[in-house]
Amino acid sequence: MRVHFIAIGGAAMHNLALALHHKGDAVTGSDDTIFDPSKSRLEKYGLLPKQFGWFPEKITRELDAVILGMHAKKDNPELLKAQELGVQIFSYPEYLYEHAKDKTRVVIGGSHGKTTITSMILHVMHYWDKEVDYMVGAQLEGFDTMVRLTDDADFMVLEGDEYLSSPIDRRPKFHLYQPNIALLSGIAWDHINVFPTFENYLEQFQLFVNGMTNGGAMVYNTEDAHVVQVVENATSHMKKYPYETPAYTVENGETLLETPDGPMPIEVFGKHNLNNLAGAKWICQHMGVVEEDFYEAIATFKGASKRLEKIAANATSVAFKDFAHSPSKVMATTQAVREQYAKHKLLACLELQRFYQNIKARLMLQTWLWCSIPHMLWRLKD
């Protein structure tokens, strides 16, 4: 296969490019700018464009496919050339579905927790040497890329992002996957620049659930009322597997998970991560890993990159980095750290993403910060 990437430098796009390169496909790409780590990783495998910019002459009828990234615009010169020549154009999720349409597709959806749950599943599969294809939104320890595509794996595990597929395909990514096995972790209004009302946002998850294959398995978090609502309103026939946060304790900064064999120390912490773990356990069981083996493997899981990732520690202090771009995620992360380190003073620093630079969004966030963060920190301090 000869595949060209328009906007190859994105975190997801460059990982797919590397996966296709490792699979033996001939890969080329363009972008107007590329930063590390994408830049260094593409350069290592000879996939870094010689010049930044868009070059329509790269698009020829000899290409088998063009993969279009969200960073590109509708009037991108390479896209226009591909449309003119009739070259087949895929969005990122369309291409993944094409690869996985004859496999058992396992899709992890939800406003929060999907990267961590997908990472937990892949960690368990890797621990037991079970080969699966995958796409996950974070770099994992022991994995070279965030995407793996093979001809032989029976399962493909996909992190089900609800953001848009491409500049010319406004469907949420997870609508395209048609899962055989799915998980829904939670629903909290996100991507408000795309989904202007909560009702509109909630509708995307209803469509995701309705898009499951008939007879599929739906694993869902019963502690989220909106999740329960969309699962109960599903139009497709499915088997339902509810889960909730398992029992656990925190002793001297260590989280102990209650298991049939007694309390077991684990590396991750916080109620939201224990809830994620319960969902991951169900998925792994559907993929052939028994409960006992799941517990053995998950005990060594240290978390996904930038998801409550420990970056420094000494005798008196510890620092974590977390990627939490909505109020509910900030709340869950802060509560987790407060619970795990009850005797420490908590200092939280929040970096606003670029979206919040516009006036309307900034005012919305300011309102939440003034109303929620001070109250939360005061309560946690007590």
Provide a descriptive summary of the structure in words.
By secondary structure, the chain is of the alpha/beta class. The chain has three domains: 2-87, Rossmann fold (3-Layer(aba) Sandwich); 94-298, UDP-N-acetylmuramoyl-L-alanine:D-glutamate ligase; 309-381. It is built from eleven helices and 18 strands. It has helices at residues 11-23, 38-44, 77-85, 92-100, 114-127, 198-210, 225-232, 271-286, 291-298, 327-340, 359-381; strands at residues 2-6, 26-30, 65-68, 89-91, 104-109, 133-135, 147-148, 155-160, 164-166, 169-172, 181-184, 216-221, 238-243, 248-251, 254-259, 262-266, 309-313, 318-321. The strands form five sheets. The chain has a seven-stranded mixed beta sheet, with helices on both faces. Strands 2-1-3-4 form a four-stranded parallel beta sheet, sandwiched between helices. Strand 15 and strand 16 form a beta hairpin. The longest helix is centred in the last third of the chain and has 23 residues, at 359-381. It starts with a strand and ends with a helix. 39% of the residues are buried. Residues 370-382 have low confidence and may be disordered.
Search tags:
382 residues, alpha/beta, Rossmann fold, UDP-N-acetylmuramoyl-L-alanine:D-glutamate ligase, seven-stranded mixed sheet, four-stranded parallel sheet, 21% strand
